[in-house]
Task: structure prediction
Amino acid sequence: MACLTGAGISAESGIATFRESRGLWNQVPVEEVATPQAFARDPLRVWQFYDARRKQVATCAPNPGHLALARLEEGLGERFTLITQNVDGLHQLAGNRNVLEIHGSLWRLRCTGCGEERDDRTVSLEPLPPICECGRMLRPSVVWFGEVLPEHAFQPAIEAAESASVFLVVGTSAVVEPAASLARVAAYQGAALWEVNPEITPLTPLCERSWQSPAGPVMDEVVDLILDDFK
Ligand code: OAD
Result:
């Protein structure tokens, strides 16, 4: 059993999604803050954006949708794989221990020189841009447009999709690849696709079950159904 989450699961925690009318990418152009070219051109601008996101996300708490998925991990243990496109760390705060962060994390920094990674929850970071002990600039350890996904997270995500009997998709527009294809791979290999999203997505027609609803009010019911199935 595997679950792929997107920005929608954190919407009820007060974190903006990306592509809805008030979404982040409608406020700040992707090309200015979320590409390697943008960082090469103006690292301070990019860091100001990520530092502000860190500050905002630090004020947010997990909501009932996250908590339901923590309960799912508690019930299924290693039979459950949680794959998230989110970089906010709220699944871990809710109690999930095994989270495949395929788009990285706001709370991890990576050196552009020596490649060293470190966790850092400081808000605000000083100086900006932050500097590694080796003297080179640190960058947010998130995946930018045009970059490949981290192998250590994406490979087990593919394996989980290939072997899942139920693949649940929560709060993603399913338009960003290769994340969206995880659900297609799962369906192709015979998994039942389940979806929770107030909107129709490209995956909806492939779904065996779909809850056209925000995650918070229905995730407990969805998790109960899964736990019943896997008893
Ligand atoms: P999007 O902003 O593309 O989609 C958010 C989805 O959440 C939409 O389908 C909404 O209908 C749904 N939604 C909104 N409120 C919800 C709620 N309360 N409960 C459940 N669903 C809700 O965000 P993602 O699909 O996560 O990548 O975007 C994928 C990737 O694109 C992100 O990881 C990010 C972005 O560019 C990177 O930054 C690499």
User: Anything to note?
Assistant: Residues 6-9, 11-12, 17-20, 23, 34, 85, 103, 143, 171-173, 176, 196-199, 201, 214-215 surround 2'-O-acetyl adenosine-5-diphosphoribose (CB under 6 Å). The beta strands are 2-5, 81-84, 99-101, 104-111, 117-119, 138-142, 166-170, 192-196, 209-211. The radius of gyration is 18 Å.
